[in-house]
Amino acid sequence: MREDDQPLVAQPSEGDGRMDSSQFISSKEMEQLYVEVLYTIRHKLGAHSAKYPHHFKEDLVHYAQTAFGVGQEYHRRCNAIASEEKPPIVVLNVTVIEAEGLEAKDPNGFSDPYCMLGIQPGCCSGNRGSAEQPSPQQLTQPPLDTIGSNEELPTTSSVSLSTGDQRRDSLVSMIPIEKMKKHSSFRLSFKRKDPSVVTSTVVVSAGGNSNQIGPANRPSLGPASSNTISVVGSSVGNNSNSSSNSCILHGREQRDSLHAALPAKFIRATSVKGATLNPKWNEKFRFDIDDVCSDTLHLDIWDHDDEYSVLDAVSKLNEVRGVKGLGRFFKQIAQSARSGTQDDFLGCVNIPLQEIPSTGIECWYKLGGRSQRSTIQGRIHLKLWLSTREDLGTSEEDNWTEIKQQEKLHCVFIDFEVSRFKNSPSQWTGELSQAALTILHQHAIQGDVTVLQSHVVRWIAYARKLPDKSLHFSVLFRILNDLDHQWSSFSTEPLSREEEDALAESFTAFIDYSLSCLRKIRYLFSHRLSNSSKLEFLLKCLMQLDVMRAFRRCCPFHKEIRGEIVVAIRKGAAEWFTSELQRCVPTDANLVTVINGLTVLTNRVYADLTRSHQIYDDVFQRIGNVSYFNIVYKNHMKMITQEFSSRLESIRSHFPNGPNGPTISTTDGGNGAETGSAENAGPLFELNIALQDLQKFQDHAPPEEISLSHQMAALNCHDCFRVVLEQWLIVARSKALNRVRSAVELDSFTNVEPYLKHSTSAIDTTSCFYQVCDFWKQLAWPELVSSYPFVYSLVEMITASAIVYADLIFLRIQTHGFFTDDWKNTAVVEEVYVNLNNLQHVKNALASIPQTLRVTAIVSAVDGPNTALLDVQRSPISGRSRSPSVVSGTLTSPGYLMIAGGAMPNISGCVGINSYDNSARQAFHNLLETARDHYENKLLRVAGCLAEKMRSEMKKNIFHLAWSPDSLPANEAAAPLLDCLDHILLDLQPNLLPDAFQRCVAAIWDVLLVELWAQAEVSSGDKFCKFYDRLHSALQMLLNFLHAEGKGLSLEALKCPTYQRVEEKISLHKAKTEQLIDLYHIGRLGQQQQLHGSGTIDAPYGVLNIRVYFHHDSLSVEILSARDVIPLDPNGLSDPFVIVELLPRRLFPNCGEQQTTVKRRTLHPVFDECFEFPVTLEQCRQETAMLLFTVMDYDVLTANDFAGEALLSLNTVPGVAATPQGLDTFHGLKQIDLVLMHQPNKHHPILSVLESRVWDRTAQEFAKKQRERVVS
Fold it and tell me: What ranges does the record list as Polar residues composition bias (predicted)?
């Protein structure tokens, strides 16, 4: 009787009560199942394989007994029942797939191959000749079962006939001789006259799967004896119709009883594949086996040639009636085999059935001949596996009972394996023991359960056990993948309707359970790694189901799983929020309790969103392409907005923001506390901070959820504690100042970093700044304009505290005598280092305040053109406003005040829409710059004093450098100074902050520059150029030493104005007189060009009009006129003339100066004179080549007076420029107006250097001449 398809009912079992399977398997069903297991073990089938190695039946029985939890008496009773059952009928399944490399028998170079195959009984196997055994070749693709496909296969024997005739067919010799048995399914009528005589028959069949007939009915118990029908082929002779070719039946009395048609059971043939040497058949055959241990599968391949061949003979097997007809049939077969014009033999294969593993085998077999002398080529591809069936009178295709048994067996074995992990069943990997796998495998092949059905059953069993056994979802994911793979591989073997319904029910139950787990994700999947792994595999299972063909076939109308995941997440978030709201905010709570409850709820929502974003969202996005965070964020924001809006309106009514402070509207009934008082603003402030923290998640929300963020932004409580905040600022300023003073009084040293010393006062002071800024950041004031007075007060508080701290630290340095001569005291030096670090540390903290408090954004909003008219007459720190808060009434929101006064400067009254300035920006700038300048002053004084303490030692080394012998190289002369600096810096660097160290190095650099200047100034006129060469080299070495390849002071800091003056002075002193004169003229030429390049020409000394060009190795200079010459004679006029000369003199040695005629009593002389200078083009193109025009006033009795001078670079003269021009083009040359100049610098450095060179006549004359041209 087959089992019904109803769900298994939970009933207790008979065993020892250990197995949880008893919850849905009745005791009777458990007993039947255990008997089935014992029956399966007793009739174990097939050879062992790699996946299913050899197990003694006793071991399998012991495992089954332990897994089922039965006692010995129960086991003996069930074993007796299993022993009395009829043994199953073994079935060999053969699939002839293809062959290759066959021998060509036809004239066209091909063959028409077909296969004849049948079962050769073990009693005849010894007479099959001595043909060599072919060795099978393994396939690269897996066999029938995916397990055991790579094992070594034994070799098989081919068949050879005893006659030696090549056309004598081996098929004749392999006809099996079987016992005649009754089988109720196939209506065979065998009459037995004598019980002691067991009848036998010869059965041969032709190809085709439609003639699969089962074996006869087997006796229930006891051995069966058999006789043999011998079919003997006659030897080669003249009498081909000899009686020796007939079949001899032992047991003549049974011959007459064989009156029914003989079924075709044991010989089958494939179809013929024409004209090929590599045929492909893919045809399946089934054979009932009597003795697996001795029977052999025999297969021949023939070439189909004539109209009536072996194949035709076999096809007429169904026409044979009785043994006499069968004898005539084999006579025809033998004649066909002997005839040379019939089918040609292509090879054969013998495969012992006992060597076929239980997992089946799929191999290439080498074809063999009928004797050792035969030459056969090619191989054949076969797939073989064993199965069984029972004589129950039911259809062979109906194995639903076995499938249900497989499911129950899986459940029993799962329960047993999980019981070994009592404390943590989720750690079980899902792998059954080898004994359990062997039992399940044997039950499957004996029940003809296909591989696909086995995977379906496995999934159903594991999915059933998932909820109550807490299995890890990775186990289900692996099984699901295996099922999907098998479904794709065996798509040609569809499941029955019952099997598909069971699989659909399992899929649906698993999805429902998984979605319920997702709804409870906050309770089931914490942030621990193991739970995260469970969640990942749960999602992988759902996503795998969504794309499986099996799921779409069994559940065609099921919703999309991804959409169901989204719904589950949304429902789970809503359920969690509702439960948390009921837990945190009681319905009958007072105001303070409600505020505190809302704060706790907001913080829990924040924590849930944090987990959603950091943990869950990545898993859902990566596996299911589902934005978990966006779904949860949207749900939470909607529910918070809906829930908090009404509650916050009620809360605001208790905190009205009037000009005189908060009004007391209600009283907390129990203790008389004023619910609207400033003291109760603390919980409200915490709620506001919690809501602000929640709004930070809007940066991670999708753009379409911006509206929710705006709704959340409206949920603020700033109006409730605006006045409270003003009071807090007043108190905070006083406390901040007191904290700074206390920090200095309680100051102590502590090691913050290796070799770097701080004091606790600096850390406490900066911590106070950070706490104030963090308070404002958490407050997250919604509007920039209305936040201005509070931010200004915070900045004023911080800068005032910083200035107080700087004064206290500087006072302590003074008190300890650092600015006195007792500076070498080690304790004093150490304390100076620490205090210098303290000042620098606080200064660095001040630099970050504007950015932290968003000062730039605030002043832009306040100073902008769209700022409403505001009153700025009060500050939260200094007191109340002296005027109405809103001047023009343009602000509609209550409490929007721009407050200033006292410590805050007045921002020029009201700021209008069309009239605005940078008053707010300037107010902040003044506060911050005052603090920065204060610290800069203190730091410079301490660092400068520290450098002054080292001046004497550096001065001594600089003196040694300057007055070293000229023979001593500069690097050796500077070595003592560099060693001294190295010692000083090594002492400073480990004890100072980087910025403080840089500041001290800059102060030392200033001292070095001053001392070098002093050495250059002392008796400079008595020193020669080599002295200044050494000083200049030393200056460069000091610069490189302090720069330290970018690790020290920057080049910008090193090349300060003091350095530039020192470097210029030393460079000038070390230059030669000619070089100085050239430099002077180059400088004057630069001044001339600057005058003409400024656009607006101011000529207080007049203008000279000229024209200059170069032509044919001659420089032509035309002095045309002059205007506005300064009057130098008593009559208010002058007698001007112009001196023209080429500079520098060393470049034009053959060109002397030339002059024009004197023009009497005029300020606008017209000369119109031309001068020629014989020069070359190369001389004119020198960078320093220029013309000097000097306008003089002629005096008869006294020396001529200087009226002005002008210079012109020869590089700009036509004909000297890069493109020379001909003389004919010079007529169109423009005239040049040169502004006449005087030397404005009375202390020009070059003239001073030249004047100091008293031994140099050229220098003295040039300096004297130029001094006459200095503006008086």
Answer: 147-164
